[in-house]
Amino acid sequence: MSADRYAYLGPEATFTEAALLQYLDSHGLRSRASTQPMRNAAAALDSVLDGDCLAAVVPIENSIEGGVPATIDALTDHGQLQIVAEVVVPVRFVLAVKPGTDPSTLTSFGSHPHGEAQVRTFMSANFPDAVYLPTSSTAAAARDLANDAADHVAAVCPALAAERYGLEVLADDIGERQDAETRFVVVTRPGAIPAPTGSDKTTVVASLRSDRAGALLDMLEQFATRGVNMSRIESRPTGDGLGLYQFSIDLLGHVHEARMADALQGVHRVTRSLRFLGSYPSASKTTAPLDPTTTDDSFTAAADWLDSTLNG
Amino acid sequence: MSADRYAYLGPEATFTEAALLQYLDSHGLRSRASTQPMRNAAAALDSVLDGDCLAAVVPIENSIEGGVPATIDALTDHGQLQIVAEVVVPVRFVLAVKPGTDPSTLTSFGSHPHGEAQVRTFMSANFPDAVYLPTSSTAAAARDLANDAADHVAAVCPALAAERYGLEVLADDIGERQDAETRFVVVTRPGAIPAPTGSDKTTVVASLRSDRAGALLDMLEQFATRGVNMSRIESRPTGDGLGLYQFSIDLLGHVHEARMADALQGVHRVTRSLRFLGSYPSASKTTAPLDPTTTDDSFTAAADWLDSTLNG
Amino acid sequence: MSADRYAYLGPEATFTEAALLQYLDSHGLRSRASTQPMRNAAAALDSVLDGDCLAAVVPIENSIEGGVPATIDALTDHGQLQIVAEVVVPVRFVLAVKPGTDPSTLTSFGSHPHGEAQVRTFMSANFPDAVYLPTSSTAAAARDLANDAADHVAAVCPALAAERYGLEVLADDIGERQDAETRFVVVTRPGAIPAPTGSDKTTVVASLRSDRAGALLDMLEQFATRGVNMSRIESRPTGDGLGLYQFSIDLLGHVHEARMADALQGVHRVTRSLRFLGSYPSASKTTAPLDPTTTDDSFTAAADWLDSTLNG
Amino acid sequence: MSADRYAYLGPEATFTEAALLQYLDSHGLRSRASTQPMRNAAAALDSVLDGDCLAAVVPIENSIEGGVPATIDALTDHGQLQIVAEVVVPVRFVLAVKPGTDPSTLTSFGSHPHGEAQVRTFMSANFPDAVYLPTSSTAAAARDLANDAADHVAAVCPALAAERYGLEVLADDIGERQDAETRFVVVTRPGAIPAPTGSDKTTVVASLRSDRAGALLDMLEQFATRGVNMSRIESRPTGDGLGLYQFSIDLLGHVHEARMADALQGVHRVTRSLRFLGSYPSASKTTAPLDPTTTDDSFTAAADWLDSTLNG
Question: What region, left, alpha or beta, does residue D100 occupy, with left being phi > 0 and alpha being psi -120 to 50 degrees?
């Protein structure tokens, strides 16, 4: 039996691959999965659209490795795909060397500039004389070191890369922002929306009407009057002219919940276009208690009231 | 064949009877109708609830003859009744005497204090020496004068009362506020809601939740996000404690229009209770054009969008 | 030395006099005060405006003895006066008889209809055969009984009236709503605004612009964006035409607090007229903690920021 | 006398230089100015901060040549600088060759990929066999062609580049989006804010509080309640964690206008931080009429009202 294929934004051994492996493990899918690094987000999504891969994992927010606007744009352009899960991965760097390397010989280290920026404090405190040599990705720093294809004698990279390429970890978690993390989404072809879990997110992309002041406020009030909160909002130019934006938005809640369904219909009315990218379990399982005016029960009671008002 | 019976807030020959006659005329119902003055709004509504009368006409807003809070309270208490029409009547006073009276003998005049307040300028300019004698209603001033049961020799009363009691009109439209008018509603037992005309009103009574600051703002935002405007809002204490109010509200639009139905469901969620008193043609036929984001079509398009999002 | 004179809405020995006495006691003013019942709210306010009395006490909200709209209208018309305090009095009825009366002879009782409505359950349970005889006020029922000027043999009245007229209390607190209470305000000529206590109210009367849908929402948003909450809002027709209202509003906070001063300026802009009736200590000393975005400090910081932005 | 130095985002002969020249011409400054291309937005701003240049011109919105997020970030980081003008330049490409080139020999053309994307329709219709060769900028395609340093025989570039490098224009305005344009800002060291013209913009950067749902709505309502409209809003991650954003916002109006000053103070209260980047004349001279509730006069009247309320 052939393996199920999963695409991810490459290269290999980055935080994105770590996110995919975390997803496969938590869903018991790893044993029958094969994973495929892709050169960019659009290519990863294409491989799903083509049927070549079952799903793709791409970064969506605040990644050290890059990627947010490209992912949002690619998802919007590949409108038929849907997000079915999110994965949050801590951004944690290690200092790795070839096994047996004497730390006192650590005269240089390689990493992607984003990685180097994160570990500057650690390196200058501990290896003040080590020269920094840039690489095309943090994983490449590890790979090239392992393959004797590098000028550097140490790599600042994800733990996954050190492990994958057989390096020895001299120091773990050496980044300055110990709470840094990246959020990834798992994208599939359209199909059943994952069932609500009580702690879900919904992602949409909305283009505002250009003919009215206050269009953004109008949209946000549609959410507010149904008690729907946002966890992320980002503007993206539509490409149609100065001052025309679309907004990529993550909402707390599931489209199968009445408040979300009602709010999205309201947003549909007041926007130029609205695209639904998916409802899926939130990586964070904590849920804020719902206000009693926005529960499914309160929506059902309101619909029943209207029905009995209209029909006696 | 017995006549159809209609109740109205008495006494006879007031602006309320004028409103009822205007309603009957405009609906071609006058020839087969009998009309019945009632001692107060509650009694008028009772006669409809009992099946004794087909409909009742009661003042609802800003009447010279009194009546607004009593009507609203009575309508709220008689919750099963519905408003099926509104009638607006200009508040126009005449100076009437027994036929043949010489104006120079006009030494006194009778009216309800509300009527007298309206004609003070006219009377002091034209009959500075005429003494004012209060009566229990403006119509009673005319009736008692006609019946030789009054001390006054002239009546300040509605044109209808002068005509009814065979008085001669010395001067017409003598009130100070020539644009004064009173709004009446026609109330029936529950039944079919009058069909939308494109220029309708909807009347509701809502009690706010007491447990939250901003409850009134919350309610108004439910209307605003669906483009539903108010033409009247009045507070009434609920009787349950200091600071607890219900609001009697007239809205522009019909409950069979999507924006109204959607807004009322939203209001139902955020209020303690909501009572629907009727959707009915507006007396004023002018309509503001609807914003394209709040037409029935935009609501249908939003529902279709959600349906296709959920079901592929 | 002549006494300081205080007016109150009469008659004597009602809850309004009780409110005045409670105010005088709590401010250590009773020993040098003389109190004066007035026939209506306007007369009480007139006596202050004339300089005849130092202050007047009038009911403002939900009183059993009546009075709210009349008070609000009188305060609005007497625009130069200001509210300097509020007093909340529990509405508590006693059953009183002439001393030595045998309860078994209690065949009738007198009270104002509002009072009778409150004690119906108690009376029918305990004195099912006692006939109810209406009086013009609850205090009058006691006074006439004491003066042998009544047909009734018992009075349902405030404790103050029983005490004042030397009656014997057979049963205390016999009303059905044991939490009923009435709110009174103490009104003086214009002068220094009472200093903020941290738990204050501000009363205003605002007339909405008639030329715009959403005028009420506009006004409430001015309060909401400064974190100012309302404890009471009541509509009153302006008398200028159908659909034109002014709103009498109690706000939590003091005009010397930045958020209130800023909100009132915003309301001034968006309304047709705005009248300030006073800032005064709240009868309830409980205060909700202020949101950090609406403290005086946050307003000062914002003004400082703007100043440094404009002036370097 | 040495010339006044102006920096711009290079290279030479791009739309950014065109914007700078347009600015200098319209202000009568060109004759005494020297212009200096800089390698990126940060370097251009540095040259102003250092005192090396009087002002810098950088693209801020929707440029074909790139630049928006980088400019916003650089402006935010160089917080002491201020925007004093905006310049809007149409994005218009020409097809240019060395003088005397026979169009039938046009077998290849060079341009930046963004430029090539804009002219694909024109080129495939008119020169279907011409091969596209990428260059580092549209201006470089012209420069290298003029210097015999290119493999291509034609350049797709701004008219300014063709003119600067002595090329012959074969076809003008060959882009697909004939309404494409880029907005640039002129940035100086802090100093006097340009006087209001009646048609101005104000640019700010605000970071939202992370501790509350609805923080964006709260901010927008501060603008809405003062009638301040936005012409651009863009989110930028703060770098402090997932879901933490700052917003770069262009507002219609000037900080010397009361509604803007009041709104910005409100925004200061409800945000984590607020940075003012400048008030300056709008490139578009059309102005929407102000609502009477948001004019300077209405703010002055409100302040006067409050003053007389507090001080008698």
Answer: left
User: Side chain identity at A227, as an amino acid letter?
Assistant: G
Boundary of a domain, candidates D188, D222, D241: D188
A275 plus A127 within the same structural domain = no
* Minimum CA–CA partner of B68 in chain C: C237
> How high does pLDDT run on average in chain B?
90
Q: Do chains B and D touch (3 or more CB pairs under 8 A)?
A: no
**Residues of chain D with C-beta less than 8 angstroms from the C-beta of C301:** 268-269
Residue after which a domain boundary falls, among D188, D215, D250: D188
Q: What CATH number is associated with residue D288?
A: 3.30.70.260
Kindly determine whether residue C214 and residue B224, on different chains, have CB atoms separated by under 8 Å.
yes
Task: Find the mean pLDDT for residues B209-236.
Answer: 84
Nearest to C82 by CA among C167, C207, C212, C186: C186
As beta bridge partners, residue B169 has B96
Does some domain include residue C17? Answer: yes
Judge whether residue B301 has pLDDT over 90: yes
Q: Is the dihedral of CA C145, C151, C152, C155 positive or negative?
A: negative
pLDDT of residue A179: 72
Please compute Rg for chain C using Cα positions: 23
**Cβ-defined contact of B233 to C229 (cutoff 8 Å):** no
* CATH code assigned at C61: 3.40.190.10
Q: Same domain for A210 and A152?
A: no
Count of alpha carbons within 13 angstroms of residue B88, beta-carbon side: 13
Does some domain include residue C311? Answer: no
CB distance D242–A181 less than 8 Å? yes
ipTM of the complex as predicted: 0.85
Query: Looking at residue A297, what is its pLDDT?
Result: 95
Cα A88 to Cα A36, A62, A184, C199, C265, distances in angstroms: 20, 11, 6, 46, 47
The model's pLDDT over B28-43, given as tens digits with 9 standing for 90+, comes to 999 999 999 998 888 9
For chain C, which residues lie within 8 Å of any Cβ of chain B, measuring from their own Cβ? 61-62, 68, 88, 179-183, 213-214, 216-217, 220-221, 224, 229-235, 237, 239, 241-243, 245, 288
Q: Which residue in B232, B239, B288 is closest to C243 by CB distance?
A: B232
Sequence-ordered list of residues with C-beta below 8 angstroms from that of C297, at least 6 positions apart, any chain? none
Provide, as residue numbers in chain C, all residues whose Cβ is less than 8 Å from the Cβ of B231.
Answer: 243
Q: Which of D242, D245, D252 should one mutate to test binding to chain A, selecting the residue with the greatest count of A CBs within 10 A?
A: D242
Contacts of D309 in chain C (CB under 8 A): 255, 264, 276
Tally of domains within chain B: 3
Alpha-carbon distance of C263 to B217, in angstroms, equals 15
Report field, pTM of the whole predicted structure over 0.95: no
Closest alpha carbon within chain D to C308:
D276
Supply the pLDDT for residue B25: 97
All chains having 3 or more CB pairs closer than 8 angstroms to chain C? B, D
Q: Is residue D293 part of a domain?
A: yes
Phi, psi of A12 (to 5 degrees): -60, 150
D288-309 pLDDT, tens digit per residue, is 788 889 999 999 999 999 999 8
Contact A255 B310 (CB under 8 A): yes
Domain residues for the domain of D75 are: 4-90+181-188
Residue A55 vs residue B179, higher pLDDT? A55
* Confidence at B147, pLDDT banded by 50, 70, 90: very high
- Å between A61 CA and nearest CA of chain D: 7
Can you state the percent helix, strand and coil of chain B, rounding each to 5? 35, 30, 35
Please give the pLDDT value at position C242.
64
Give chain B positions within 8 Å (CB) of C239: 62
**pLDDT above 90 (res C109):** yes
pLDDT digits (tens, 9 = 90+) for C201-256: 999 999 988 756 688 899 999 999 999 988 888 877 676 666 667 888 999 999 99
pLDDT over 60 at A67, yes or no: no
Amino acid D239: pLDDT: 66
Cβ–Cβ below 8 Å for D234 and A245: yes
